[in-house]
Design brief:
This protein has about 230 residues and is an alpha/beta fold. The protein has a single domain, classed as P-loop containing nucleotide triphosphate hydrolases (Rossmann fold). The strands form two sheets. The protein has a six-stranded mixed beta sheet, with helices on both faces. The chain has a four-stranded antiparallel beta sheet with strand order 2-1-4-5, with helices on one face. Helix 3 runs parallel beside helix 6. The longest helix has 17 residues. It is globular, with a radius of gyration of 17 Å.
Length: about 230
């Protein structure tokens, strides 16, 4: 479904990710782990097209999207939840969700979004900036889901979130896996969370993949070696 070959990207003259190869099948969840600053967010920004790759290729559903604009990639079904949420603080929860609809071909908000995140229905008229961190994360994920993406990029969705919301996000990811054909790449720092939702794990260090394994064959000690400071 998504094939990344020899991907290299960065900022100005600085190369952040180097020679990245990743394969994601239909209805598969891939987790990418690594210390802060190793290139995980850069990888997702390059996949969605916020950053243009310097070398390598990105194929999505057998189509080369390496040079296409981020808006086109979104229309093709790739959703993106950035680190830091980036919701619109002066817009209401409902208006934020409507912005998410514009990324795809859906015309209305599926009620299942509110089944996943009931608080968003209760706070539909509240400004996004007035929500707590956990509520904003729910809104950021819901905003990506309303366009009914076939592929979802999640950048550290549990960062700084209270345990009950982490559990809620875990339940949502597991349900999406069970009830749809949506694939995901999840950037995460919590190995236990990754193992609860992912099918395959990649670890990045200094911009390159240094470890990969199916989730049932992951060796915790090996992964933690690359996560420790």
């Amino acid at each position: 479904m998504l094939s990344i070959k020899g991907l290299e990207a960065g900022y100005e003259e600085s190369m952040v990710i180097r020679n990245i190869d990743i394969e994601v099948d239909k209805n598969q969840v891939i987790c990418v782990m690594g210390r802060n600053g190793v290139g995980k967010s850069t990888l997702l920004k390059t996949i969605i097209g916020i950053l243009q790759s310097k070398n390598g290729s990105i194929h999505y559903q057998d189509e080369d999207i390496t040079k296409t604009r981020s808006s086109i990639r979104a229309q093709k079904g790739i959703g993106y939840v950035p680190q830091g949420r980036e919701i619109f603080p002066k817009m209401t929860v409902y208006e934020n969700l409507l912005i998410g609809l514009e990324a795809g071909n859906e015309k209305r908000i599926d009620e299942k979004i509110y089944d996943y995140f009931p608080i968003l229905k209760d706070f539909a008229k509240r400004n996004g900036g007035d929500l707590s961190g956990g509520q904003q994360q729910q809104l950021a994920i819901a905003r990506a889901l309303v366009s009914n993406p076939s592929f979802l990029l999640l950048d550290e969705p549990t960062e700084g979130i209270q345990p009950n919301i982490v559990q809620l996000i875990q339940n949502v990811i597991v349900d999406i896996k069970k009830t749809s054909a949506t694939s995901m790449i999840l950037v995460e720092q919590n190995l236990n969370f990754a193992k609860s939702v992912a099918d395959y794990l990649y670890v990045i260090d200094h911009g390159s993949v240094v470890y990969k394994n199916p989730i049932d064959k992951v060796e915790d000690e090996e992964v933690y070696r690359y996560l420790s400071v």
